[in-house]
Amino acid sequence: MLAIYGSSRENGNSEKLASYVLKDINHSAFHLREMIIKPITDQRHDEHGFQPVKDDFDSIIEAFLKADAVVFVTPLYWYGMSGSMKDFFDRWSQALRDERYSFKENAKGKKAYVVVAGGDSPKLKALPLIQQFHYIFGFVGMEFEGYVIGEANAPDDIVKDTKAIREAEVMNDMIKHKNR
User: Fold this and answer.
1) What pTM value is reported for the model?
2) pLDDT in tens, 11-31
3) What is the mean pLDDT of the chain?
4) Which residue among 69, 74, 104, 161 is least enclosed by CB atoms within 10 Å?
5) At CB < 8 A and 24+ separation, what contacts does 47-55 make?
6) pLDDT-wise least confident of 94-98, 113-117, 140-144, 146-150
7) Closest to 107 measured CA to CA, from 57, 73, 82, 144
8) Are the CB atoms for 88 and 6 separated by under 8 Å?
9) Quick check: 141 pLDDT over 60?
10) d(Cα 96, Cα 105) in Å, to the nearest integer?
11) What DSSP character marks residue 144?
12) Residues forming beta bridges with residue 72, ordered by sequence position
């Protein structure tokens, strides 16, 4: 299992909520705030296509393609995923055309989970983001297994959302059951 964290804040609410999902589950993790992922330069229609980019994207994609399941963790920033998470997904356009990866073939069938935390009625206002993840996963053939949305704004607010914590614990049980 792989966890990809999009928060710009260490130990933020989305990460804390994800800790309930990932409790006692063997996984590796990438914190995008610690990585350099350059924004995409769209070269899909250029004569020579995408050119190599010197950043950390390839190392994350290589781990992603080896994982059987991935938990995507992001705060709700302006009713969408974090900028670092968006840059990561935008670069999938490049990975889809990179002959080293057979990206779509290797992404197909992977299990995907999403964890989101934010303020301002996130259980409603994060639903378009959940739909966006659904479309992304569908495009590459991943299986969207579920999501948890927590309400939290200030540091450590997530502990007040006991419903989201229970949902995260249920997801944890579900993941453990599927990996038996």
Assistant:
1) 0.94
2) 999 999 999 999 999 999 999
3) 93
4) 104
5) 49/97, 50/93, 50/94, 50/97, 50/98, 53/91, 53/94
6) 94-98
7) 144
8) yes
9) yes
10) 9
11) E
12) 4, 114
Q: Are the CB atoms for 37 and 11 separated by under 8 Å?
A: no
Quick one: tokens of 106?
């290797």
Q: What is the signed CA dihedral for 65, 92, 13, 153, rounded to 10 degrees? A: -170
Nearest Cα residue to 158 out of 52, 54, 55, 20: 20
Tokens of 108: 């197909």
Helix (H) or strand (E) holding 15: helix 13-21
Q: What is the largest CA-CA distance in the chain?
A: 54
Q: What are phi and psi of 6, to 5 degrees?
A: -105, 5
Of 86, 118, 92, nearest in space to 15 by CA: 118
Q: Which two tokens stand for residue 156?
A: 């450590």
Of 138, 62, 72, 132, the C-alpha closest to 103 is 62
According to DSSP, the residues that pair with 80 across neighbouring strands are 77
Task: Give me the pLDDT at residue 44, please.
Answer: 77
